[in-house]
Amino acid sequence: MGLPILYGAITQHFLQAAFMSLGALLALLLDPRSQALKQILAIVIGVLAVICAAALGFTLIGHPHMAIAALIVFGFLAGLPKPEHAYWGLLGKYIATALLLAQLGFPASTAIGIAYFYGALLALFLILLQGWLYKIDEVGHSPSNEFFQLIKGDTNGPFYGLTLPLTILAATLSANWLHVNQPGWVGLTILFVMHINDRLSWYRLWDRIVGTLLGIIIAYLSVRYLDQIGLALVIAAFAFWIPYSLRKSYLLFSLSITVTVMVAINFALLPNGDLNLMSWRFYDTLIGCFWVAIALIITHGIHVFKSKI
């Protein structure tokens, strides 16, 4: 992830370099750690799907009713995969995120989409090179098997699938009412914090808030005091911890991903940057976590009521 930022620092192509880095992040997270052909297909198809979702969100600007309908459909689909459906669960969240952020005005253009895809190809090349140089015995997941399981009905169920987009919609509307500068981050928080397991979601709320706050502080200091080469090193250093933290600690993952993404986005806004984006990101996280808590209370009440009938 640091290589595109380093390239951008040298060539002064800040926006394209930042989205190349974010495309690389998506490819690394989607990697099924399987045979080379499955890796290629899974990553290329996944990245293209996210780019298409962003393009759809961009075309829906100015059409609020169609945008809401698309958000409900995409959010519903993102809520269906179970935790063991690692590929489709993550891809569904990223597709819904791309639609939401693009529709709310996040930068979206053909040049950015191409840069995003190039970043994913860079990551794919390094993934394949790593697999060729260093063989591992780890058993990867199969996106095709996951897909057929979903088709057969092995999902979280329509109740949770509908709860997720409705929570995102309510939170986004409340963020607009509060005149939040970047309301799209509210929906992103909900997508990645809400979980079919209520108890796990409650733990994630706290970890998300603390991890995001610490990550914003680190990202702010980095953008405020480091030069462009230093920002590339910060992104590489914190991206290094993402795979470990993804398995071990949601708090550490929230911290690592916040620093990585926020520094990359601010890099895209150079030479001036936008340090105010940091504080808004934390406010958005609080709003998103608040609505997750509301959704958990309501759904838990409904389950209790059903069990007593």
Tell me the span between the first and last alpha carbons. Answer: 53 Å
Quickly give the structural class.
mainly alpha
Largest sheet: none
Number of helices: 14
Strand content: under 5%
Shape descriptor reads globular
Radius of gyration: 19 Å
Mean pLDDT: 86
According to DSSP, the number of beta strands is 0
- Low-confidence parts, pLDDT < 50 over ≥5 residues? none
Number of spatially distinct domains: 1
SSE arrangement:
Layout: H1 2-11, H2 14-30, H3 36-59, H4 64-79, H5 86-103, H6 110-133, H7 143-151, H8 158-177, H9 184-193, H10 198-225, H11 228-239, H12 242-248, H13 250-268, H14 276-308
Membrane topology: Multi-pass membrane protein
Protein name: Integral membrane bound transporter domain-containing protein
Subcellular location: Membrane
Q: Explain this structure to me?
A:
This protein has 309 residues and is an all-alpha fold. The protein has one domain (2-308). The chain has 14 helices and no strands. The protein starts with a helix and ends with a helix. 42% of the residues are buried.
Which tags fit this structure?
single chain; 309 residues; mainly alpha; 14 helices; 80% helix; 0% strand; globular
Quick structural summary:
This is Integral membrane bound transporter domain-containing protein. Residues 171-294 form the Integral membrane bound transporter domain. This protein has 14 helices and no strands.
